[in-house]
Amino acid sequence: MTVFRWGILGAGSIAHKFATGLNDLPDTELYAVGSRSQAKADAFADVYKIPVRHNSYEALVADPKVDAIYVATPHTFHKEHSILAMEQGKAVLCEKPFALNAAEAAEMIAYARTHKVFLMEAMWSRFLPHMQKIKELIAQGAIGEIRMLQADFGFRMPEVMPEHRLFNPHLGGGALLDVGIYPVSLAYFLFGKPTQIKTLANLGSTQVDEEAALIFQHEKGELSLLSTAIRLNTPHEALIVGTQGRIKIHSSWWAPAKFTLEPAGKDAQVISVDTPLNGYNYEALEVAKCVQNGRLESETMPLDETLAIMQTLDTIRKEWGLSYPAEAK
Fold first, then answer.
1. Under a CB-based contact definition with an 8 Å cutoff, are residues 25 and 283 in contact?
2. For 318, how many CA atoms within 13 A lie in the half-sphere containing its CB?
3. Percentages (nearest 5) of helix, strand, coil residues in the chain
4. Which residue, of 33, 43, 154, 214, is most buried by count of CB atoms within 10 Å of its CB?
5. What digits encode the pLDDT tens for the residues 248-267?
């Protein structure tokens, strides 16, 4: 097998996590990084011993030795930077949220399909071993028919900082797009698209959502009870309830974690699934596998589902009266 070479577009905090996840993967090389300045590219590359450092995104995506680009910029730039990479024929793994809204996501997906370029949302938790094991147990009927999900992802920023990306509407700030997408995506993973959506949110002084509660009803009546926040620390747990038991995913459920299987009438069992490295390696392996096998999208994180999730996020924000300045352009 030939070596699969990655380029990272952007050098922020999430890029560091992805770079760490690439360490020691077989037949994989973190070959290049691109940033807006040479100094930032060099500083990032020095940490991970990346041989090629580009001082522009354009130079990175034009590098003929790069097989795939990981887009790690703020989500207000995801459409622009993903299409920039796809224009050069590069496979793209785009950090979540996939785009600012569904219209942008649809444009990205249309470009990928028209030009036959691989594209995937970087919802890393989908590919983690414990999530795959849980899906397997559910398919085997370990807790009967699953009927309810309770999941949260909230953390406390100590103060409101209007220029920070989490509070700045010009950068698509707020809890929903930053971390609320995790429980929303989990609901899709288990039950599919919701047929009814009820929500409440508290918009803060900068007019982005600081706390929110979401209730979904799905096709067979299943319920998802979800919460998210950037001003509150929530438990970071998920509970999947079936007719014959339940599965509790311990903190932090979206990252490598243990879970407890509690079948009705039987002893509970704590299950720990081995997760080498930091967990970001699994989405990278999925991209390489798909590209090397000639597939243009992932069965685990298909583009139609990514688009549907963005449509759901749009519906939620519309209910709150929350839009972003970039959407008015």
1. no
2. 9
3. 35, 25, 35
4. 33
5. 999 999 999 999 999 999 99
Give the pair of three-digit tokens for residue 323: 């839009």
Radius of gyration of the chain (CA): 20
Buried b (16+ CB within 10 A) or exposed e, 175-187: bbbbbbbbbbbbb
The confidence score (pLDDT) of residue 1 equals 57
Q: What is the DSSP string of 162-205?
A: TTSTTT-GGGT-SHIIIIIHHHHHHHHHHH-SEEEEEEEEEE-T
Supply the DSSP string of 210-262, one letter for each residue: EEEEEEEEETTS-EEEEEEESBS-----EEEEETTEEEEEPSSTTSS--EEEE
Cα–Cα distances (Å) from 96 to 260, 262, 274, in that order, read: 28, 32, 25
CA 100 to chain centre: 13
Instruction: Write the pLDDT tens digit of every residue in 33-64.
Output: 999 999 999 999 999 999 999 999 999 999 99
Q: Positive or negative, the Cα torsion across 68, 74, 75, 81?
A: negative
Q: Give the position of tokens 């090397």.
A: 292
What domains are there in the chain, each with its CATH number?
Answer: 4-125 (3.40.50.720), 129-274+309-328 (3.30.360.10)
pLDDT tens digits, 183-210:
999 999 999 999 999 999 999 999 999 9
Confidence (pLDDT) at 281: 96
State the pLDDT at residue 329.
Answer: 67
Q: Is 110 helix (H, G, I), strand (E, B) or coil?
A: helix
Closest CA to 71 of 63, 61, 254, 184: 61
Whole-number Å distance between alpha carbons of 178 and 4: 29
